[in-house]
């Protein structure tokens, strides 16, 4: 039986990744803190080289466990992400051989024809014959001699093969897929046209399915596959082809694809690409759309559960804002609810019994923060409505940024609330910059409360006893 494993050399390379550089490529921001860098999204976390430390919990480690902790990935997924999408290596368990040293990249030997690959890609995947023939003539798709896999070749700027992705053609069981050892993830399977648009996909068959579905003038456009969700291949093609300034992300219509699209858009914005958007397939991916046209039952799309829940939570906020009496001190009311919530949040608190109450308190504090933000904007002569603030909150919510466990969220919530209290209670003359900072803190607190509510809602089976009766919460003002 064949497995895929990561060699010790790959693990060492992953663990030695410079975290500042890695996270900045994900669009994260940092501020200097002595010899270290403080992560703006989790300001109790600092990084230096390949090491990190969370001061609020007195814990830390190296790059792999950092990605596992903050990106909620298992060990192989963390290694793959740190290596920029580099896959593991095949290991035949029956041979019980030790891992072999890393080999230089070499394309698998080609078969004398492509009958099996063409039969698989046309009859099973419904790809257009003419499109396949073009890539075959360019020697970018061929059939390997040993296992009759479909091989998708990626060339560098000099036309030299630097990457190869293999896809099994047998339909029994889960088909094999993986990269040839030594592949450079920057140079995955792609096509560059003369137009200014770059379409981005997770895998070669996704890309070819899209071209089959939308063949009109396809050769004028450009296409690149990521072999996963890392952005290295996309950025490489953009840097090498400056005429590409419009990017359309066409990743899978599922939770992972939606998160990756958000993360990649942040990276594009950071690199000052102004024209980028997301285009989703109707079903799970573009090949499933193609299957549906040919009468095959497709795998359904899966919406991101956090994005499904977000508008439902936000829909409550206008009513809570209206519930505040006109003569009420909003800050005092928020503090009161924070004091009610804090004992439940602390380790050893009765979290299991009061999850519904926690959600209610969080919603109330979020509404208070929005009202405070609205009033401060009025004083700054930049009026804004609650409805506009809630819309802005939903637009700025990013599921790929909303990660972490219960304790980390408690730390973030307390930090955001106390930071807001310190800034709002500061004495002396406030400058325009002070007001802008306080506006940001109010908005950050509201967004943090919504994130915490989403976490509690989705993790409720873990936090609540199975038979607990949920009662209607009465807000105490």
Question: What this model shows, in words?
Answer:
With 477 residues, this protein is an alpha+beta fold. The chain is built from 18 helices and 16 strands. It has helices spanning 8-15, 19-25, 63-71, 75-82, 115-124, 129-137, 204-213, 232-240, 255-270, 286-293, 305-314, 317-323, 330-345, 355-379, 386-396, 406-424, 432-458, 460-463, and strands at residues 2-5, 30-33, 36-39, 45-48, 51-54, 59-62, 89-92, 141-143, 150-155, 161-167, 177-179, 190-191, 197-201, 222-225, 246-249, 275-278. It has a 5-stranded antiparallel beta sheet with strand order 2-3-4-5-6. The chain has a 5-stranded mixed beta sheet with strand order 12-14-13-15-16. It has a 4-stranded antiparallel beta sheet with strand order 8-9-10-11. Helix 1 (8-15) crosses helix 4, helix 13 (330-345) packs antiparallel against helix 14 and helix 14 (355-379) runs antiparallel to helix 17. The longest helix has 27 residues, at 432-458. The model is unreliable at 88-100 and 461-477 (pLDDT under 50).
Summarize the structure.
45% of the residues lie in helices and 14% in strands. The chain has 18 helices and 16 strands.
Helix content: 40-55%
Specify the number of helices. Answer: 18
* Radius of gyration over C-alpha positions, nearest whole angstrom: 26 Å
Distance between the termini: 64 Å
Supply the helix-strand structural class: alpha+beta
* DSSP strand count: 16
Spans of at least 5 consecutive residues whose pLDDT stays below 50 are 88-100, 461-477
Strand content: 5-15%
Largest sheet: 5 strands, antiparallel
Strand order across the biggest sheet? Answer: 2-3-4-5-6
Overall average pLDDT: 85
Instruction: Name the overall outline.
Output: elongated
């Amino acid at each position: 039986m064949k497995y895929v494993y990561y060699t010790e050399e790959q693990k060492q390379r992953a663990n030695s990744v410079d975290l500042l550089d890695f996270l900045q490529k994900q669009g994260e921001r940092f501020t200097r803190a002595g010899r270290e860098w403080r992560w703006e999204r989790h300001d109790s976390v600092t990084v230096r080289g390949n090491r990190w430390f969370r001061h609020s919990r007195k814990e830390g480690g190296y790059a792999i466990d950092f990605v596992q902790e903050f990106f909620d990935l298992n060990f192989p997924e963390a290694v793959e992400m740190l290596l920029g999408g580099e896959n593991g290596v095949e290991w035949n368990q029956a041979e019980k051989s030790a891992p072999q040293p890393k080999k230089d990249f070499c394309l698998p030997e080609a078969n004398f024809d492509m009958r099996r690959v063409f039969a698989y890609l046309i009859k099973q995947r419904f790809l257009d014959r003419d499109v396949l023939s073009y890539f075959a003539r360019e020697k970018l798709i061929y059939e390997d001699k040993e296992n009759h896999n479909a091989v998708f070749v990626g060339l560098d700027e000099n036309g030299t093969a630097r990457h190869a992705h293999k896809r099994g053609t047998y339909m029994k069981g889960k088909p094999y897929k993986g990269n040839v050892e030594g592949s450079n993830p920057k140079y995955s399977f792609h096509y560059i046209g003369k137009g200014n648009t770059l379409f981005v996909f997770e895998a070669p068959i996704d890309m070819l399915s899209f071209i089959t579905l939308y063949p009109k003038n396809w050769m004028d456009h450009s296409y690149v596959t990521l072999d996963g969700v890392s952005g290295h291949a996309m950025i490489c093609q953009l840097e090498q082809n400056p005429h590409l300034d419009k990017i359309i992300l066409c990743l899978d219509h599922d939770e992972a694809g939606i998160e990756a699209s958000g993360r990649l858009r942040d990276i594009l914005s950071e690199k000052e690409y102004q024209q980028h958007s997301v285009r989703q397939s109707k079903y799970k991916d573009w090949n499933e759309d193609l299957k549906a046209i040919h009468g095959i039952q497709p795998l359904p799309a899966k919406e991101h559960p956090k994005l499904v829940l977000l508008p439902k939570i936000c829909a409550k906020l206008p009513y809570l804002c209206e519930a505040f009496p006109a003569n009420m001190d909003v800050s005092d009311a928020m503090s009161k609810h924070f004091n009610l919530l804090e004992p439940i949040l602390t380790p050893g608190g009765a979290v299991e019994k009061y999850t519904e109450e926690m959600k209610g308190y969080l919603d109330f504090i979020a509404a208070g923060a929005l009202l405070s933000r609205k009033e401060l904007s009025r004083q700054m002569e930049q009026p804004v409505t609650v409805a506009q603030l809630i819309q802005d909150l939903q637009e700025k919510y990013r599921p790929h940024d909303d990660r972490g466990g219960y304790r980390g969220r408690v730390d973030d919530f307390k930090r955001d609330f106390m930071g807001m209290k310190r800034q709002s209670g500061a004495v002396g003359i406030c400058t325009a910059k002070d007001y802008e900072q306080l506006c940001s803190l109010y908005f950050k607190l509201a967004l943090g409360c919504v994130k915490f509510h989403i976490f509690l809602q989705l993790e409720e089976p873990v936090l609540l006893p199975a038979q607990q009766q949920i009662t209607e919460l009465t807000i105490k003002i």
